Amino acid sequence: MTLGLPGDVSRDSVGRAIVHAGHVAAWVYLGVGALVALTLAFGGQASGWIAAGLSLVMIGLLSIVALHRTLASTLVYLVVGGAATAWMTAIAMRSGYDLGTTDNAVVAIPCIALVLVGGSGSGSVMACTWVAVAYAVGQSAAFVGASASGSTFHISVAATAVAVFVMLVRTVDGLTRRSGLRRQAALVRANAAVREATVRRDHELEAITRLHDTAMGHLLAVASSGSGPVDERLRAEIRSDLTLLVGRDWVAQHGEEQRTDDPIAADGMAVLDQAFTMAADDGLDVQMSGDLAVLAMLGPQRAAELDGAVAECLHNVARHAGVDEVEIVLGSGGGEVTVAVMDVGAGFDAERVPAGRRGLREVVARLEREGGSARVWSAIGLGTTVVLAMPTGGA
Asked: What is the pLDDT of residue 367?
């Protein structure tokens, strides 16, 4: 692809990296907790073996979350991890080390490991929600453990600081990616405007050249005709040329000539009729960038399938994105015509799209019938970009 899509649009880049970093940090904390528990165990306290086992259980569940980050695996980690945290808190507060309250480094270990779960989605809003839930679970578990051991409960300052830090990181990441998407769309529109201005300038120069040549030709013809009345046939030629030259839009004329000379282009220019009709029916404001003429590179059947796929994308924006503005960017390269449909709406997690929802699957099916493809970038709260690619030519 040559559309230059920003890396922060992809949910496989920055968002996944932050989630993975959180998981690694949680593994480190749980590993430290297991070592502390083993120290108690080798020191003669049998409860240390229990705490070490609970830490290993949380490490195993976190590994499942990291490999299969779904709603179910995250909920299991939080529920089982909360129970383990309550049990480990009770053990730590009864250990005889006079920890005082639950605001200590030992109890903070499982609480922080819960906070760093990162959520089941890579979107910033969803991640912050999961962090808040995990923080509440951890502190509630610490309260239960303190009550069971007859000790004093205090909110963990360390766990609170980690929760606030993670949410700040995810919020900044989300805002940065949203502004990056808008800047990219603005750059595409500016690039298209520059290309349009260049084309208009070239054709205006062509118009000036034609006007100059025509005028000089007629002046030479009049001069060579000698004295007396101008020949009527020459008069008719001059009048005909003036009719063609005066008030003529050379840029529009150039486009009409191209469509007339290319039968595929004549059909291709109407290829997005379904899409624009759908946008109008759904009340969407469509901002289009790129060269519409690239659609002339498609045969009628492929053009119709691409048109239907774009229309389905726009309908999905209207139904699910929660915005009334969408960006369409057209381009070509590598033997393909590409159409990107971008919005900065609600976004979604592609891995968790219900099996019964046909919107995205219908888009892919339309393109695959003609050898095309579709790629989707989306993050919850940051919008969606769908890039449709269709091979040039075809029936």
From this structure: 83
- In the structure encoding, which two tokens stand for residue 280, read together? 């109008």
The H-or-E segment that residue 151 falls in is none
Four-residue CA torsion sign, 86, 37, 61, 25: positive
- How many CA within 13 A on the CB side of residue 224? 7
Max mean pLDDT range (41-45, 259-263, 311-315, 378-382): 311-315
Q: Tokens for 207, please give them.
A: 């118009």
C-alpha neighbours within 13 Å on the C-beta side of residue 22? 32
> Rounded to two decimals, what is the model's pTM?
0.47
Look at 379 and 252; give whichever has higher pLDDT: 379
Q: In what order do the strands lie in the sheet with 383-391?
A: 285-289, 325-333, 336-343, 383-391, 373-379
Where does the chain hold its CATH 3.30.565.10 domain(s)?
Answer: 262-395
Q: Residue 310 carries which side chain, given as an amino acid letter? A: V
| DSSP-derived secondary structure letter, 101 | B
Residue range 336-363: mean pLDDT, rounded: 74
If we measure between CA atoms, which residue out of 274, 287, 282 comes closest to residue 342? 287
Query: Rounded distance, CA 323 to CA 55, Å?
Result: 45
How long a stretch of residues is the chain? 395
What is the C-alpha separation between 165 and 168, in angstroms, rounded?
5
Does residue 346 register a pLDDT over 90?
no
Whether 68 has a pLDDT exceeding 80, the answer reads: no
Structure tokens at 220: 């030479």
Contacts of 163 (CB under 8 A, 6+ apart): 115, 131, 132, 134, 135
pLDDT of residue 11 exceeding 50, the answer is: no
pLDDT for residue 264 is more than 50:
no
- Angle of helix 157-224 versus helix 124-149 axis, rounded to 10: 180
Token output for 174: 């989300």
CA distances from 182 to 179, 185, 213, 232, 259 (A): 5, 5, 47, 63, 33
The architecture CATH gives domain 262-395: 2-Layer Sandwich (3.30)
